[in-house]
Design a protein that fits this description.
20% strand, globular, six-stranded mixed sheet, binds inosinic acid, 215 residues, Maf protein, alpha/beta, 5 helices, 6 strands
Length: 215
Amino acid sequence: MSARRLSGRAVIATHNAGKLAEMRELLAPFGIEAVSAGELDLSEPDETGTTYAENAAIKARAAARASGLPALADDSGLAVEALDGAPGIFSARWAGKPADFAAAMARVARELELRGIGEDRRRAHFVSALVVAWPDGHEELFEGRVFGRLVPPRGERGFGYDPIFLPEGFERTFGEMSSEEKHGIDWRSARPSPLSHRARAFLDLAHACLPPREG
Ligand code: IMP
């Protein structure tokens, strides 16, 4: 069965400014009017799931129910292989409230040092689960991953753990890339090859659920 399509207005169910900016950029060519959970004053549900997909569904469902509009949520995180996948679904929580990602990145470095994990063994990946939920309960799920390794922080761009993540095959961290480079999507190409975890999940979502691009 084919996926249900979005049109008109949709809520981006996040209070994270970095994610909101990326989702707005990704949605821009599709003529979807994106309003954020913050703009609608929606409350943030507790992320009680044990997977990215469950937490994304919790956020999308809550926003769809509260707004009466289809809602798109991302749940994402950084999984460090030598830390058994931590911080993973707890990536935002490692930064505390208010979020301090310098502290979260320092914690990752500290945990790696404590375990004696050298620079050559610092493999990690980002994961993004995107869920679109409609007010009638219908849902669609898309997941994306990007593999790479951790390095000492470089760059002021992006958000969260971007400065310590060096994607495989690249010489610049996500923190040193423009958002276009981090998405890696060239819409003019017949086969766009997205780079970031969010862009990879989004490209699948776009094929399944979005109207044709404008312009
Ligand atoms: P949550 O999905 O709201 O639970 O938060 C995910 C957390 O993972 C974010 O607050 C960031 O710390 C981290 N994260 C997810 N995606 C990215 C990314 O693209 N760059 C850097 N950090 C990310």
